[in-house]
Amino acid sequence: MKKWINDIEPLFIEDDKRNYGHRTWANAAWSDITLAFAIDFNSPGEVTTKKAAGDKHIGFQLNADEIRNNYANPDFWEMKALRFADYMRNNTHFKEDGIKLNIAGNSMITLERYAIKEEDAAEVIYYILKTLKSAGINILEIRSGGQTGIDEFGIKASQRLHIPCSVLAPKGFRMHYREGEEIEGRDAFTDRFKISK
User: Fold this and answer.
1) Mind listing the domains of the chain with CATH numbers?
2) The model's pTM
3) C-alpha to C-alpha distances, 50 to 31, 33, 153, 177, nearest whole angstrom
4) Residue 1's pLDDT is what?
C-alpha cells in the first residue's frame, strides 16, 4: 500500500489543453517567481519556461559533476542555496511576506543524458529548497507541471518540507516518461508522489 509523502496530497489540476506548453505558460502566470533548475537551459522546455516567465524567471544552474559528487552532501548545497537566497530576494517580484513558487527544470530524459540518477537529483532539489526555507524565503505554495525530473522533485520536496503544493498537468495527465515513451492517466501520474507504507 502507498501513502502520500508526509501525508501531504498535492492538489492535482488537469489543464484544459493537452499540449505541454500551455501549462508551462499557465504555471508561470500563476507564480510570483519561476525557479528553474537545469543542467541544460537550451532544451525546448527550458526555452519555453524562460519565455513564459519573463522577468519572473530565475535560473539555478546545475552541474552534472557536482550532483554526482555531492548529491549526499547537504552542506555543499546549503552553501550554494544560501548565496542563491540573496539573488532571489533581489528579484523585483519577490515578496517578503511570501511567494508562490513555480518549480521547473530538466526532465529525467535530459538528466539521464548527463548520467544523473533520479534519487540523487531529488535529494539535491530537496536540500536546496530546505535551505531556502530555513533562510527565511517564505514559500506559500509550490507548483510544477508534474513531469519527471525537476518538476516531480520540486513537489516531492515540498511534501517533505510541509509546504502546500499543486500540480497543473496537461489534459489527460500526460507525461513524457522515458525517451519516446509517453504515459497518460491520473493514477499513473499521481502515484509517483506517494511512498510505500
Assistant:
1) 2-196 (3.40.50)
2) 0.96
3) 13, 11, 19, 23
4) 85
